[in-house]
Amino acid sequence: MKRFLTFLLAGLMMVLPALSLAQETDFPRKEIQLIVPFSAGGATDLMARQMQPLFKSLLDVTLVVEDVEGGGSVTGVTQALTSKPDGYTVGLVTSSYIALDAQGQVPIPLSDVTLISSLSEDPLCVVVKHPKAGGKYANAEEFLADAKARPGEVILAQAGNNNANQACVAVLGEVAGIEFNNIPYDGASRVVTEIIGGHIEAGCMKPADCLSQLQAEEVMIVGTFTRERVDILPDVPTFSELGYDVFKYGDIAMITFIAAPKGVDEAVQAKLSDMFHTVLSSQEWQDIAKERAFVSAPVGGEVLTTYVNSVYNSLKVIAEKVFE
Amino acid sequence: MDKQKRLTEIIMSAFILAVSTYLLQIAYTSKIRTKVQGMNSMAFPKAILYLLIALCLYVAITGVINLKKEKSLRRLDKKTSDQEKSPIIAKEVALSVGLIILYAIGWQFIGFILSSILFVFVESRILDPEKPWWHTMLVAAGYTLLVYFAFSMGFGVTFPEPIFAAIGI
Amino acid sequence: MADIINGVISTVTNPQAMLMVFLGTFMGLVFGSLPGLTATMAVALLIPMTFTLEPVIAIGTMLGAYVGGMAGGAVAAILLNIPGTPSAVVTTIDGHPMARAGRGAEALGWAAIASGFGGLISWVFLAFLSPVLARMATSFSAPEYAALAMFGLTIISAVSGKSVVKGIIAGLIGMVLSFAGTDPIWGDLRFTFGNYNLLSGVATMPALIGLYSIPQILNGCTNKNTVRNVKVKMKNFMPSLKSLWKSKWNIIRTSIIGVFIGIIPATGGNIAAFIAYDQAKRFSKEPETFGKGNPDGIIASEAANNAVCGGALIPLLTLGIPGDSVTAVMLGGLLIHGLTPGPALFTEHYDVVIGIFTTLLIATFLMVLIQMVGIKFFVKVLSVPTNYLSAALVVLSLVGSFALRRNMFDVFMTIGLGLFGFFLMKGGFPIAPAVLGLVLGRMFEREFRTALRTSNGNMSVFIERPIALALIIISVAVVVSTAVKRYRERAKVKDEFVI
């Protein structure tokens, strides 16, 4: 009996590592869950859901999107980052989280995280009521001149606070010498509604947040916080062009990327990166990106880490200098 | 109002009052931005908490007054109904509460399916010990599996299943 | 005109379309009736499921789930005193007493018919008055929302039952619960006790399940107050034409309230139901019967919450601004199918718009039909042995609160609030005001402070704007009239020191 048991044990000891190895090379054996830390139906959620059919058709992998909103994306991201590090749960992290991390307000700092892949970069811009719909500004200069002439009265709002959007507003105010009345609202949709209703003068958001209204010429983008003009908005100047050095503290960008909890096996991490890169490089995805006005360049590894760090650093600087 | 209700009313008012005071203390000591335009983060909560404390005090005090009044009324009546003797929480309710808490904790340790089957089985038996145990087990297992499959396949919910996951199912 | 008729006919005669709308409505009703699952979840699930279908059919399915979800909440609300969705909270107030009196089937019948009328009336507004009403959606800014929230909070008195003071306490408790999380203006953490799960505050659905479900279940443990001991009269569950006619003004009024609340962005079924209930009570010839089983209470709640569906679609389709949380998810559904809401939708994709109108109407009819057929089946739920039913409901409740964010914290919060709610109920505190406080407290504080920010601290912003001013005046009038009424009542009844 004893010899039999010894053999059994030995046998198991040989088989088990093989089993776990098989698990890794078999990755993924079931569906992968992507946690989106914003509400269902929003621009970020939509973008994630548009990856689902591509994952299925290009990789035969089922991607399940789950929306866990709250705390400026902290609740959802934390949930993703505290899940089992087996590679089957990943989170969509955005500049909102980076900004809060830079202010020390998140339970899991990004240094403790496995970065998988970049996802998108949305240009942040200033949106006002379209002149054809009764708006009083025809371009950025008029808007800024009015704001300068009436300090503390012209409202430039954004969704949420202590995030990249508010950072843009703060820096613009500082370099242009303007005192905006900056108001946070609980969602981009609300900011757009307020603009259309004529209750506020302008908002800072990404084009994807107001596509419908842009097309209907209810709102207009007057300036972008980018280094070069945005492809689908060829007539809109960047604030740098207009003479405002909005990047004086560093690159502020609205980026999104995919992250997994610390401790994910390297082979699994590589596989995940590959999967996302395949989808992001596909023509279908690039077409979607163009249509929804964001840039999607698949980047991973060291380059991604550097990228995230640079956004982190500039948001940190701005948070200290410009947020009260 | 019967005695249980009156007593519960007084106890709950006192409880809410105590919690509100505790929260008020937190409101005063929380780290928040103070040099701000307009109301700071804790201004509104503080106002509401003060109001709550005042109202609870009112209800608690009038509750005690009414309790005494009703007690003397009952003494005049000379009727001691069964209701007066019964405790505030019935035995089944207390047991159920304890079971529910254990059940929720069970999700994390023995997983959803097992703890649900156990819970439905035990709870049903507490509430009705007459039913044959195999009947109860059947209902427990059947219902649990129904809910499990409906929610995990239909609605895509992943339940915590530490045991099954470890075995590799 | 001809193309409208063609469009309608092509949708109605498309078997796939009809089937999908039916399935969507059915799914909505199921989700609505189960506490813990909501119309929003149903629609969110349908987005990926309908991805490969044609746009009109996909949207039609979602509309079915929307309409069904709003109506389904009444089932559990009436039979078990547990609202299936937040918008059915008010239905419990008169629905459950009716069920306890053996009139459960009748109550369900009223709920179904009222939902149908609400949906129909709002459909009329949507189909014929959208462009006119669209602008209403954008006229609401922070001062108006704050005034609306204030008005909503005054309704606490209408749903407090006997003691308004205890109702106010419950409302304040709800407000305190709503404080947890991040400050809406400054982003400071408030009452989070270092727990990241509280960063977004107390989630409404787990709180609702905790405050309503658990106390009811625990109550049922002792076999008191159960509906099961009463034989349900199955015969007359269709409201007679005479009684329908008698309630016509109630139906019309509450539906219109629902439509307008639907149009206002970010306000939805539950607010509409509360306001409608309050109005129905005020206009009723027998207000004292409200809360004891007056069908007008059910009518108010269900007509209003289904009328929200059509109303919320108005700003969604014309401006791309969702009128409530379900339409917010539907916006994503539209965009995924390449449909951009706004004037372009009406000019370039008019066939889609016709399709949407058609499927909505069909879904409304199907919703009433399925409910009517299903009443016999729903009532059978009551004949399940109590011990199994209680245990089963506990499992369902916990699963429901878990399903929202896959979060154990929510589950424990449900249990905690459930215990708290149980004792509150035992102490004679009403629970409905707590829901009002939770939902409106957040809204009021946020909007009030935002309004002050936009005007740089100037309080006159509330008086200068007509809509806000009107709502404030109505709120004050409501409070004063309620106080006067209670004072007069108190003068009559002397043996209990109740206010």
Distance between the termini of chain B: 56 Å
Mean pLDDT of chain C: 86
Q: What helical percentage do the residues of chain B reach?
A: over 70%
Low-confidence stretches of chain C: none
User: Could you say which structural class the secondary elements and strand pairing of chain B correspond to?
Assistant: mainly alpha
Overall form of chain B: flat
From the spread of the alpha carbons, the general shape of chain C counts as: globular
Sheet bearing the most strands of chain C, described?
A: 2 strands, antiparallel
Order of helix and strand elements from N to C terminus of chain B: HHHHHHH
Largest sheet of chain B: none
List how many beta strands of chain B DSSP finds. Answer: 0
Number of helices of chain B: 7
What are the main properties of this structure?
heterotrimer; A: 324 residues; alpha/beta; D-Maltodextrin-Binding Protein, domain 2; 2 domains; five-stranded mixed sheet; 10 strands; 43% helix; 18% strand; elongated; C: 499 residues; mainly alpha; two-stranded antiparallel ribbon; 21 helices; 2 strands; 73% helix; globular
Question: Would you give an account of this structure?
Answer:
The complex is a heterotrimer of chains A (324), B (169) and C (499). Chain A is α/β, with parallel strands linked by helices and 324 residues long. Chain A folds into two domains: 31-122 and 253-321, Bordetella uptake gene, domain 1 (D-Maltodextrin-Binding Protein, domain 2, 3-Layer(aba) Sandwich), CATH 3.40.190; 125-224, 3-Layer(aba) Sandwich (D-Maltodextrin-Binding Protein, domain 2). Chain A has twelve helices and ten strands. Chain A has helices spanning 2-25, 43-49, 52-59, 74-81, 95-102, 140-149, 164-176, 188-196, 211-215, 266-281, 283-291, 301-321, and strands at 32-36, 63-67, 89-94, 113-122, 125-129, 155-159, 181-185, 202-205, 219-224, 254-261. In chain A, the strands form two sheets. Chain A has a five-stranded mixed β-sheet, with helices on both faces. In chain A, strands 7-6-8-5-9 form a five-stranded mixed β-sheet, with helices on both faces. In chain A, α3 (52-59) packs across α10 (266-281) and α5 crosses α12. Chain B is mostly helical and 169 residues long. Chain B has two domains: 3-85; 91-167, no CATH class. Chain B has seven helices and no strands. The longest helix of chain B is centred in the middle third of the chain and has 35 residues, at 43-77. The model of chain B has no long low-confidence stretch (mean pLDDT 83). Chain C has one domain (2-492). Chain C is 73% helix and 1% strand. Chain C has helices at residues 2-12, 15-33, 39-49, 55-80, 89-100, 104-138, 142-154, 164-179, 204-221, 241-246, 248-263, 269-283, 295-319, 325-336, 343-348, 350-380, 386-405, 408-426, 432-454, 461-464, 466-492, and strands at residues 181-182, 189-190. In chain C, a hairpin with a 6-residue loop joins β1 and β2 (189-190). Chain C starts with a helix and ends in a 7-residue tail after the last helix. The mean pLDDT of chain C is 86. Classes of the chains: A alpha/beta (324), B mainly alpha (169), C mainly alpha (499). Chains in contact: A-B, A-C, B-C. At the B-C interface, α1, α2, α4, α5 and α6 of B face α8, β2, α9, α17 and α18 of C.
